[in-house]
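[recover] target loaded
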């Protein structure tokens, strides 16, 4: 059977940790979208692994697959694999020949386009990994696929067609001279050909490429267990998210079929688990109706709740909500339940994993945005435009807070040891989303997750 793990909010809900927690009986973990914009954390016996391309099952020695729906930067893939091998793991990762390759010009253009958009407050605050430009080329039928790297003649043809267009975009549209770039080779056909042909040779030598759908279908036919590891989250899905502040792929469960080549029936017959962070955190500009406090340069001028700055800081500190690279504070807010109802519908959650329950411990009162008020009407789910979402006023519901306890001991004892008020919070979510809680995260480690029920 299959189990699909999907972020139900804005990314970083703790998906990697849940893939690990449920990972014991799994044979293959497949990513179906995104690329090295993801950062999935697995903490095992005090060792922390931050994975961006390698599926999280690698920590347990499971086969990892990067599906056709992924965009793969071979340079970061090999760097990550080498790093994990140095740490004593032996990752076995296969890459779909139909997946698209991220090239250096994609990263350069990602940075320039963000700069241009920031003048209009439209920047999505991308990770700068070239994700959007690579998916644009895929849709524009001018992409380079992983399979192309294995065939030098095809690779050269593809590059000779596309690179002059990219160079013209850089020079004629953005007015930037290639020779002024840190890496002028990013727009040079010969240099790119040599680099990517070498990547192709390594992929072939290590027997890493697969026909993804066929590979997975064969495993499933043999009775193996397959987990689909979503990256990002439903509200940054290109179709179902808060456009244009989104990523360029479909993290929602439908993406698991399209992005791997198994049928929707295969995904639908399995379980789809929504990963929920017990509050909200977000990087980037744009609306956030349940935001607490505000972050300069990101919270819209009339947004946030500056009067709740202390509360925001408490949650930010307890949750470690600061950029891993920049150290900048992230925006935080109460749980947005209309966002979760939208996610439950779009994905068809059969179960939930609720993380970071420990972060809210010690507060007298915990609130959730239960509904929105828009133009005098109450809404229970998200409106289709981000502008309307920005006009929504959150209608809050209040819960009694729960104490800070020895969470490791609670995890040891199981669900019934969770403080009563926290259980009321979880049961409210089960009712609203019509799906049972399968796991509760009370800390970052594998041992700090309470498994109520395994989906396998
Ligand atoms: P992902 O992208 O969805 O896999 O999530 P990230 O790994 O980017 O971010 C989640 C962060 O929260 C990581 O640092 C995790 O170790 C941590 N984390 C996950 N679950 C919990 C939890 O239940 N409690 C706490 N305090 N931290 C958690
Ligand atoms: P994981 O898998 C949180 C956000 C970026 C930006 C927008 C577009 O760790 O949950 P992109 O580089 O994808 O074009 O950026 O999406 N974003 C994420 N936010 N977690 C992620 O991944 C993200 N991947 C992209 O911050 O706002
Ligand atoms: Mg992450």
């Amino acid at each position: 059977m299959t189990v699909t793990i999907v972020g139900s909010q804005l990314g970083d809900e703790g998906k990697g940790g849940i893939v690990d927690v449920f990972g014991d009986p799994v044979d293959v973990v497949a990513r179906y979208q995104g690329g090295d914009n993801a950062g999935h954390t697995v903490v095992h016996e005090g060792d922390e692994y931050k994975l961006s391309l390698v599926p999280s099952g690698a920590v347990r020695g499971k086969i990892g697959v990067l599906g056709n729906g992924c965009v793969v930067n071979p340079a970061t893939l090999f760097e990550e694999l080498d790093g994990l091998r140095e740490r004593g793991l032996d990752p076995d990762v296969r890459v779909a020949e139909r997946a698209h390759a991220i090239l250096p010009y994609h990263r350069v253009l990602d940075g320039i386009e963000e700069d241009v958009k920031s003048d209009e407050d439209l920047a999505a605050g991308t990770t700068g990994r070239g994700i959007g430009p690579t998916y644009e080329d895929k849709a524009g039928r001018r992409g380079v696929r992983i399979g192309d790297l294995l065939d030098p003649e095809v690779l050269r043809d593809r590059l000779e067609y596309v690179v002059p267009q990219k160079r013209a975009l850089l020079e004629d549209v953005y007015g930037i001279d290639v020779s002024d770039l840190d890496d002028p080779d990013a727009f040079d056909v010969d240099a790119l050909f040599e680099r990517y042909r070498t990547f192709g040779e390594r992929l072939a030598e290590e027997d890493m490429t697969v026909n993804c759908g066929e590979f997975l279908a064969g495993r499933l036919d043999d009775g193996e267990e397959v987990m689909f590891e979503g990256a990002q989250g439903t509200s940054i899905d290109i179709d179902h998210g808060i456009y244009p502040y989104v990523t360029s792929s479909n993290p929602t469960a439908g993406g698991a079929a399209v992005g791997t080549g198994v049928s929707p029936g295969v995904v639908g017959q399995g379980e789809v688990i929504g990963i929920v962070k017990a509050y909200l955190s977000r990087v980037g500009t744009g609306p956030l109706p349940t935001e607490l406090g505000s972050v300069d340069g990101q919270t819209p001028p009339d947004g946030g709740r500056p009067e709740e700055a202390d509360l925001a800081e408490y949650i930010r500190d307890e949750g470690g909500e600061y950029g891993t690279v920049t150290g900048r504070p992230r925006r935080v807010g109460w749980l947005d339940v209309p966002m979760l109802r939208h996610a439950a519908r779009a994905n068809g959650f059969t179960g939930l994993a609720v993380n970071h329950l420990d972060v809210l411990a010690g507060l007298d009162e915990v609130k959730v945005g239960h509904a929105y008020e828009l133009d005098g009407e109450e809404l229970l789910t998200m409106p289709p435009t981000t502008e309307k979402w920005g006009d929504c006023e959150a209608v809050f519901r209040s819960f009694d807070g729960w104490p800070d306890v020895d969470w490791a001991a609670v995890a040891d004892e199981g669900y019934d040891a969770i403080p009563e008020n926290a259980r009321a919070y979880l049961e409210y979510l089960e009712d609203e989303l019509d799906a049972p809680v399968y796991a509760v995260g009370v800390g970052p480690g594998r041992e700090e997750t309470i498994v109520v029920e395994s989906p396998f």
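[recover] notes: Residues 11-12, 38-40 surround magnesium ion (ligand 3) (CB under 6 Å).
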